[in-house]
Amino acid sequence: WSLEENGTAYDFNTKITKDITLYSVYSVNSYKVSFINEGTKYIEDET
């Protein structure tokens, strides 16, 4: 969570004295998938 979009992490120990908006901060995991074909046809990897 952050006080700004793409900002730094919010310190939840901070005393809140007025209304605030918190933005979620996350990153998407990326995985590489390799296909194994039993024939001779090449199948490209996918990310």
Compose a concise summary of this entry:
By secondary structure, this protein is low in regular secondary structure.
Question: Would you mind describing this structure in some detail?
Answer:
The protein contains no helices and no strands. The chain has about 45 residues and is mostly loops. The two termini are about 25 Å apart. The model has no long low-confidence stretch (mean pLDDT about 85).
Kindly report how far apart the N and C termini lie: 27 Å
What is the percentage of strand-forming residues?
under 5%
Form type: rod-shaped
Poorly predicted tracts of residues = none
Question: Main beta sheet, described?
Answer: none
Total helices: the number is 0
Task: Summarize the helices and strands and which ones pair or pack.
Elements: no helix or strand
